Amino acid sequence: MIFLRVKDWLKGIYGRYEGLLLGILRFIMALTAFLLIFFNIGFDARLNNPLIAVALAVVCGFLPVNVTVFFAGILVVIHTYAASMEFAVVLLVIFLVVELAYMHFAPRYGYLLLVMPIAGFLGIPCAPVLVCGLMTGPSAAVPLALGSLVYHILDYVKVYAASASGTDIENILSRYQYVIENAFNNPETYLTILTVVAVLVLVYVIRRLSVDYAWLIAAVSGAILYLVLMLVGDLVLTIEVNLVALILNVVISLLLTVLVILFVFQVDYKRTERVQFEDDEYVYYVKAVPKMTISATKRAEPVKKILTAGKNADAEKDGADPGDVEAVEELEDPDEGAESSSHVAEKLKELSEKLDR
Amino acid sequence: MLNTDRIKLMTRLGAYEERQGKEVLPVVTYFKNDYIIKNMIWTAITTTIAFLLVMVLWVVFRFEFYLEHLAQMNLILLALRVVIFYAAALILSEVAAYFVFDYKYRRARKLLKPYAKGLKELEELYKKEDKAKLGLTAATGGGKE
Asked: Residue A86, Cβ neighbours under 10 Å: how many?
């Protein structure tokens, strides 16, 4: 009951303040990304100032999310260049190849390139995979996999970038080879990419099944598969995986996914619309504000009474004992309250026809 | 006198243009084949540039090997291998582009249907208003006479 009221309240908030909420969300995501960059790979002292992160995040709050991805990419390359030119060049080439080869097909998933490294540095890389499996589809596999690759490269840069030195050609070439080999020859990276793709596909397939709570089954199955694949990979490839961190990652990611789905994506809200148009006589500036829907639990009560009364009347006409009337049908899913208004209207019409006979 | 039905309909159409319309309308202004071919050409260009970048990384990575063995290598065979890899990458990306943009175009046409229906209704409303105005003009003109 409380959950339904919270959902109704959220519908109103989302509908009225969608623009502001999205701006705040973009600001938070940008700020998180920039601060994580500064704290993890902040090698350039000139840019290592939290105020710069805040200022950039404010700008990104007003712009589409792909601009945040662009700024984050620039910051990563600049900071990495301060530590090692070779790493910076390799990262720049990766970003350019991704932009050229993939973004053309699905530009709206560009932000996942940023979300995966953020989730990785926060210790919950499973969460974006589960949420994308439930909300998008297999087309998100490429940015998620590339985001995992970027995260592993940045993690490597954190540890080894500062050890590079020397400016003669032979040294530079050997460093490039060292960087490329270690960036792309890491079995943990490929294990993570394989796990991400497998979990995404599994969650997507289960979510589309016509069973109750398919989304919850999909999320739990995806979390279990993630854990199993990482543990099996740990044994087969003899990688050192921190078991406690892995379990925490899976559990927290699953909880976050459930919360995000319940309170964000399953709240079917109508937005406030602002449109402008004109005809021969007037220019119209229209603001359409969604109405608050009445809670379905309140609507269920009058339906209960009307159906009972109608059925009792029928039973009496037929000479039966009103006590033999079947139990009144109730709305099983309160979320169908808004859609059941036509159902109620049909029922009322049937009853009025019966009573008129 | 404001026609509230027409205003409601135009508001819905305006809201559609602000939301789904931004994704759908730029697509359906093209014919299907033109849209797919335009995007396939752009895919070919971006795939070529991406392939060149990856080639550069690969050459840097294997620079010492090529430097040591360049004199003994069959350069024509090497060039042929590069061309085969490029052709494979291009074919894969073009096939993917064809299916992706074909799907996008069909999806955009499907999403356009409610908007097209709304526009027809709007056209009908305008016709009714024009008829009503003509009728009113004839009536007042006849009255004055």
From this structure: 24
